[in-house]
Write a structure and sequence with these properties.
By secondary structure, the chain is α+β, with helices and mostly antiparallel strands. About 45% of the residues lie in helices and about 20% in strands. The protein contains 5 helices and 3 strands. It is globular, with a radius of gyration of 14 Å.
Length: about 140
């Protein structure tokens, strides 16, 4: 069943009408995020294309630079928004990073904030290090 989770997440993405080509790693990252929200009785966040493109581009930049930093939040967001949040992290696996996010009060607050109505997830690898980026959006 665990092996099917990323494929189930990818199938769910296909149903949202998102035209983005998903990798198994992105699907896994979204699945972990979705499970944490569901465990706290929160809804699944739909993929927002600007947030998705931004998250993936930033994850790739972090992996190239080898330095963890936040982006300038409005960059790349073309839709009208009221609030933006971002989690950035690295570790040995996507799951380990999500566990670390949930153990951090600020990252956990972003993941579990009910105001968000869109998300993007990015994943990139540099050697044995995985970088993930979650961009949360409230459009208005």
């Amino acid at each position: 069943m665990r092996r099917l989770a990323p494929f189930a997440a990818a199938a769910a993405l296909a149903l949202t009408g998102c035209n983005y080509l998903w990798t198994p790693n992105q699907a896994t990252a979204l699945d972990r995020l979705t499970k944490d929200r569901a465990a706290n009785r929160l809804s699944t966040l739909p993929i927002q294309s600007d947030a998705q493109n931004k998250a993936q581009a930033w994850a790739e930049k972090l992996s190239r630079d080898g330095v963890l930093s936040h982006s300038y939040l409005p960059d790349g967001i073309g839709v009208r928004w009221c609030s933006i949040g971002e989690n950035v992290g690295y570790g040995p696996t996507i799951t380990a990073i999500e566990v670390a996010y949930m153990a951090s009060p600020h990252h956990r607050a972003n993941i579990l904030d009910s105001k968000w109505n869109g998300v993007g997830v990015g994943v990139a690898r540099a050697g044995s290090r995985v970088y993930t980026v979650q961009v949360f959006l409230k459009t208005c």
